[in-house]
Amino acid sequence: MNLLMATGTIGGLTMVSRIAGFAREMLMSRIMGASAAADAFFVAFRLPNTFRRLFGEGAFSAGFVPLYSQRLHGEGGETDARRFSEEVLAVFLPTLLLFTLFFEIIMPLFVAAISGYQGEKLALATFLTRITFPYLLLISLVSLFSGILNSLTRFTAAAFAPALLNLSMLAAMLLVRDGGEKTATALAIGVTVGGVIQLALLIAACRRAGVSLKLRRPRMTPGVRQFVRVVVPATLGAGVYQISAFIDTFFLARIGTGAMSYFNYADRLNQLPLGVIGAALGTAILPQVSRHVGAGEPDKAARVQGEAAELAMLLCLPAALALCVASGPLIGAMFQGGHFSAEDSRITAMVLSIIVLGLPAYVLVKVLTPGFYSRQDTATPVKTAGVVLVANVVLNFVLIPPFGIAGLAAAIAIASWLNCIILYVILHRRRHFRIEGWLASRIVRQLIAGAAMVAALIAVRMLLGGWFTGGVGRRMIGVAAIVGTGMAVYFPVAWLLGGLDKDAFKALLRRKRPGSDAV
To answer: Residues 70, 85: contact at Cβ < 8 Å?
Structure first.
């Protein structure tokens, strides 16, 4: 499978999961609202997912996939790769079982420490988290089998697997529509059932690919020791970012009933451009930057980062500005209804309008960090993240008392820009990357195009004000008008002002590589 087909497969199936995820959140808001039961479920869902990003997707992928691929394409071939997988599984599985059992035992203390809940709300959150926590074990094993399949260039099953969780949770809500504790319990069960289905799919896909792993006796073989040596630093690095997620949960749970739900719904929209643009850019430019650095071509490496920064701002500026200006209509159209009131929608929209102000910075961090990774410097981004983590905690203590959940959203946005600025300053001082005149000029022109788009969006909101407070159908038409207007204004103005590389864009439309006509 070539790169274009692989990207199309992963991107298409990821979009299926995104659509199912939005459907899940839209239905959940109407059935659960911003109630205490909804808050308790979001805690139960957030905790195993935080550990999942720490162990399953982050550290495990960083350690397992390169080592598996190395063996697969080495002298030992498939036999050596399969043995390595079985050795890792033999140690990984009991470790996960013990980790899960430990937290199941201390769950009341753990949930109380993170959430600050008391009484019935603590009891419900603990009960739900005990149901969802095995998802960590299941999804970590999914990461192992996904790594095997991706190394074999079989991407379909691994890319589709996340959609199964959303479908399982949707089914739970459709079967139990009562709301409150009953639906929250059904959702928690749906999370673990979704993990079981994901794992079953990946095991079946591996068997179809000719890979059937056997359980071995746990042993610290040379391969396992090599795996551990790679995973431990990656886990420590990922831990800084996941501690930030725990801290956000800690403060959200103490702001008051509904805060966890408001933040979750707002972050669902915020994460869409983050996941699509940020991850794609970071993945795409790392090999190019690494190649130029390895060849002793720092100027070309910096040029790649500059072009990525230009593209990041071209796409993120309109997304951030549109989500900020149109947060009310967007949240109302997607989530308002049933138990999710107009006031709930208003607060969620406010959170979204603040948190998206950090969106360009977050994506730019994905552009800047390859400048360190390509030079085998993984320590600096981790140290920077540690500094930003401390700053985020201080900002929470300063901003939450007077501003509540708006203060927490502002702290996250400010911390994102702080992280971006520190990384850029370090790269600039080391003479690895700096904002050239051409890049600064493009960004200024993009900002002007963004200002024109904001004016157009405000005009649409004024002209179609009634469409955003009517029935669901009218609200969706209003949202379509906002989205269409934003695109119709921003990109043509950016084109006319020279806010993007026209030659590269024309080459893309001709399905040629940018610069292929250069002499």
So the answer is: no
Residue 106 token pair: 């201390």
CA distance 288 to 302: 10
Alpha helices in 275-297 (DSSP H): 279-294
Cβ neighbour number for residue 58 with a 10 Å cutoff: 20
Which of 133, 75, 71 has the alpha carbon at shortest distance from 102? Answer: 133
What is the number of structural domains in the chain?
Answer: 1
What is the rounded distance in angstroms from the CA atom of residue 304 to the CA atom of residue 298?
10
* C-alpha span between 367 and 288 (Å, rounded): 12
Task: Give the DSSP H/E element, type plus range, for residue 453.
Answer: helix 437-463
What lies within 8 Å, CB to CB, of 180 at 6+ separation is 32, 35, 37
Residue type, 398: V
Residue with tokens 């071209």: 314
User: Among candidates 351, 358, 305, 363, which has minimal Cα distance to 327?
Assistant: 351
Grade residue 122 by pLDDT with cuts at 50, 70 and 90. very high
Is 176 within the bounds of a domain?
Answer: yes
- Domain-embedded: residue 88: yes
DSSP tag of 358: G
Contact by Cβ (8 Å): 201, 147: no
In a domain, 19, yes or no: yes
Residue 9 lies in a domain: yes
Per cent of the chain over pLDDT 70 is: 84
| Degrees, nearest 5: CA angle 169-173-177 | 170
User: Using CB atoms within 10 A of its CB, is residue 286 exposed (0-12), middle (13-18) or buried (19+)?
Assistant: middle
Q: How far apart are CA 229 and CA 66, in angstroms?
A: 13
Q: Which residue has the tokens 């107009």?
A: 342
Between 129 and 25, the more confident residue is 129
Report the alpha-carbon distance of residue 124 to residue 106 in Å, rounded. 15
Cβ partners under 8 Å of residue 108, min gap 6: 122, 126
**Helix (H) or strand (E) segment spanning residue 168:** helix 156-175
Domain of 66 in residue numbering reads as 1-249
Distance, in Å, from the CA atom of 284 to the CA atom of 304, rounded to the nearest integer, reads: 10
Residue 219: phi and psi, rounded to 5, are -145, 140
Q: What are phi and psi of 340, to 5 degrees?
A: -100, 105
CB-side neighbour CA atoms (13 Å) of 48: 29
- Taking 3-state DSSP, the helix, strand and coil percentages for the chain, each rounded to the nearest 5, stand at 85, 0, 15
Lowest-confidence region among 76-80, 294-298, 372-376: 372-376
